[in-house]
Write a structure and sequence with these properties.
heterodimer; A: alpha/beta; Rossmann fold; six-stranded parallel beta sheet; 7 helices; B: Rossmann fold; six-stranded mixed beta sheet; two-stranded antiparallel sheet; 30% strand; binds flavin mononucleotide
Chain lengths: 202, 172
């Protein structure tokens, strides 16, 4: 059965950027997809769903330069509860920083999981500036890359793809200040307060 | 300050005498980061989850020598250490700067660090070591490491590797 199973491994999956990227994937993908959020308690249930799918796509954020603990823990469950037939595993990872290549290590980790557990690694899309992207007009560009990812997966012609906001770094840095200042404003916190050097009030 | 974070209990003779702070993370209650960014935008510098992590990340910030001891899994830190590292982002701000030509966050009051990382496991293969080395190289930029060294070992070799690091620290 050529269908793609999508697992969202963001710790805030229901409200995540990963969810938005997964929704675009589902919209532009020519073959059927099924989507689930990974939670702390549904690992066994999700491992049970993998059987019968030709492809598995993990959608997740970069956390501390690697895969988030949510995904690490799920992979450990999948390792002990493997499906009868193993799908090809692909990745859609987004990070806050501008450079998509900051996601390379996370992709390498998934590759390593595949090698250690007998899965074929498929394609990857690494998104830079992924935190603020959904609020910008650059989402159209991102959607095009997501479409490319879907095409690679459905055709079995695998590639590593990258995309980011088409901004010079200094402009991105400036734009990120307004993004975060607005974020703080919603909680009544000023830029100065956000810039505090104090940790736990000390 | 000097700091050891370990994901398993350690038997170290020298640690206390050398004035080293030590956390056995496996004994602490540390929940997973929920990605709420409260530590940047609601209560800057403080995580909204008030569990044991709130005692650990200030110690990371203060320390100029750190030793992280973790089982290696899929080329990264295993769950205990990874969960803690994710909970340590209150020590950075939301704001972004250029560092070595790349975008990274500003640190709050975080001492530059000489870091040692002991990654342990059975027969760690060359591929896995390579991925882990790339990971720590990236961590160095985000976690304010001015230098770092990685030591790969079997679990039985952790204590002696750690003692070696402590010996080096006497110089600082
Ligand atoms: C604990 C934590 C660690 C993060 N670490 C990184 C990082 O190392 N590099 C990076 O570029 N972004 C990092 N980010 C930013 C996220 O990758 C970014 O906000 C992403 O858009 C979140 O996606 P999501 O909404 O799908 O969870 C981190 C965010 C959190 C909460």
């Amino acid at each position: 059965m050529a269908e793609i199973l999508i697992f969202n491994a963001s710790p805030r999956a229901p409200r995540s950027n990963s969810r938005l990227y997964a929704e675009i994937f589902t919209k532009v993908c020519r073959i059927k997809t099924e989507y689930f959020n990974i939670t702390k308690t549904n690992h066994i249930e999700l491992c049970g769903k993998v059987n019968g799918f030709s492809d598995l796509l993990f959608v997740f954020p970069l956390y501390a330069d690697g895969i988030p603990a949510t995904l690490l823990n799920f992979l450990k469950s999948l390792e002990t509860n493997p499906p009868g037939e193993k799908p090809v595993i692909s990745v859609l990872v987004n990070c806050g920083f501008l450079e998509p290549s900051q996601n390379d290590t996370a992709v390498e980790m998934i590759r390593l999981f595949c090698r250690q557990n007998g899965y074929r690694f498929g394609s990857a899309l690494e998104i830079g500036g992924g935190e603020a992207l959904p609020a910008t007009p650059f989402m159209r560009l991102t959607a095009r890359k997501i479409k490319k990812l879907a095409e690679c997966i459905t055709a079995g012609k695998h590639r590593i793809l990258h995309t980011t906001m088409p901004l010079p770094k200094r402009l991105f840095v400036k734009a990120s200040v307004s993004y975060w200042v607005n974020y703080g404003k919603k909680s009544g916190i000023s830029e100065e307060e956000m810039r505090t050097l104090r940790i736990e009030g000390k | 300050m000097k700091l050891i974070l370990s994901d398993r209990p350690l038997k170290l003779s020298a640690a206390e005498a050398d004035g080293v702070k030590y956390f056995d993370l496996s004994e602490l209650k540390i929940a997973g980061c929920t990605g709420c960014f409260g530590c940047w935008t609601k209560t800057p510098g403080r995580c909204v989850i008030r569990d044991d992590a709130v005692n650990v990340y200030p110690a990371i910030a203060e320390s100029s020598c750190v030793l992280y001891i973790s089982r290696i899994k899929y080329g990264g830190y295993d769950t205990v250490m990874k969960t803690l590292l994710e909970r340590a982002i209150p020590i950075q701000t939301a704001f972004i700067r250029l560092l070595d030509g790349e975008t990274h966050h500003y640190q709050r009051a975080v001492a530059p660090k000489k870091a040692h990382v002991i990654a342990y496991g059975d027969n760690i293969c060359a591929d896995e070591k390579a991925v882990f080395s790339r990971l720590v190289a990236r961590n160095a930029k985000n976690m304010n490491f001015e230098s770092y060294r990685i030591i790969f070992t079997e679990e039985s070799g952790i204590e002696s590797a750690a003692e070696e690091v402590l010996k080096k620290w006497r110089k600082y």
